[in-house]
Amino acid sequence: MPAATESLRSTSEDSAIVELDAAVIGAGFAGLYALHKLRNDLHLNVQSFENGSDVGGTWFWNRYPGARSDTEVTAYCYSFDRELFSEWRWSQRYPRQKEIWSYLSMFADRYDLRRSIVFDTTVESATFDEHTGRWLLVTDTGQRYSAQFLIEGVGLLSSTNVPNFPGQENFRGEIHHTARWPEQDPDFRGKRVGVVGTGSSGAQVITEVAPECGHLTVFQRTPQYIVPAQHGPLDPHLLARIDSDYDGYWRSVLASVTAFGFDESDVPGAGMPDAERDAIFEQQWNSGGGFQFMFATFNDIGTSREANNAACDFIRRKIAQIVPDPETAAKLTPHDLYAKRPICCDNYYETFNRANVSLVDANAHPILEITEKGVRTDEGEYELDIIVFATGFDAVTGNFFKIDHRGRNGVELRQKWVDRPRVHLGLMSADFPNLFMIFGPMGPFTNQPPAHEVQVNWVADVIAYMREQGLEAIEPEHEAEDQWLAMCDEIAYQTLFPETDSWINGANVPGKPKAVMFYMAGMGAYMEHLQAAVDSKYAGFRTDRTPVGAS
Prior knowledge:
The protein has helices at about 30-40, 60, 80-85, 95-110, 200-210, 235-245, 245-255, 275-285, 290-295, 305-320, 325-330, 350, 400, 415, 450-470, 480-490, 525-535; strands spanning about 10, 15-25, 45-50, 115-120, 125-130, 135-140, 145-150, 175, 190-195, 215-220, 225, 345, 355-360, 365-370, 375, 380-385, 385-390, 405, 435, 445, 475, 520, 540-545. It is of the alpha/beta class.
């Protein structure tokens, strides 16, 4: 393998361009592991870029009240370092934002990563030079970098979806977005607070702020199916089981559909007697967990209309039992399919029984404008001191579009993906050599940290293979990309997920094309495709021994 670059160099053409072996964008779970893997294991000269002032990615920015993981933490962490797994002791099944950020901060220190990260810096453009076979990056400070490999861990859920209501600039109070929360928490005590949005972030902030504020008004466009998380300490028996067979535990995580670390059901709900089915739902409701309710109860809630309707009916009955006011219960009750990324949050429906909480049906009575005093709908004006936008993210593609990518032959990524993202294996896009997208579009619909490790390891193996073989560039063939998209579509349309509107298909962002954006067959099946690419010596990929445009 050729020796890695030992230090930052300048090109002969322009001394302001800093040369690298690899550039990494992002310092969350994916970006930190990519930096560690490429710099510490492959000994490449790597520079990372992060637009926040510290590591953490989404866990740096999403520090709103109530922010926490909805994945049991034994699978929401790094697996490659067994000592780290044993040494770090999580306090809860679903830790809060501060604890997750502390974990990532410790990880950066453990592997001495901060010295290779430029913070408070945004990469504005990435242009592939066909004659040199390198990516030219330009940051918001004007600094330029040249790298053979570009790895982007920009975050699936990081690009904020900020609404733009008329009159928003005239509001005399405070406006905050959950995904860009200020370092100093607003003082909610005795205040009139309005929350716009009832997705995962909205549910968490609603339940956290309601007991503290003077009055909370929730503007709900879409009612949600929300099950309890059942927060609490980690099960010591689970920790003992993992410790007794650490490698076996992670093999089971990666061989599963969701990679969430729980036992997935192999029993169909369709055809089962109602009483028997409801007993299983009740048991899981009491145990907690959104993905568990969808995947640990039965194996066909996402594919069978009968099983899905049974889950919907069960949650609807729970809402009616929990919320005694019939008008409020009716507003909270969803009538679509249970086919979005499942949400779990303790005491969500119970919160609407509080005397200081009001629910506005923003679908029947849309927000018309933000006034100086608050929010106005056709029913009247709601006077507020603080407005919280919990309107989620321009997911999957949003952060990729924030960078002006120009690939081979000047192909613009935004234009290539104008109708839908076009990616092979959820990692690479044709015409963009040596650009690797960690948890990019058309990747697995799973728990993220285990998938990040799998994908980064695959990328590292590709780079090692290229160096051993004297290859300069790799990119998917258009035909392979088309075949991957067709397969992802075929799999997705065997499920119920395309029948609902949510961020997982882009329907939450006005003007964004609705499209399949995930590989829905599960983590285990996805890994088989990655291994097949390795075993075939990257069939379906174009490789070059000289720079792509060299004569």
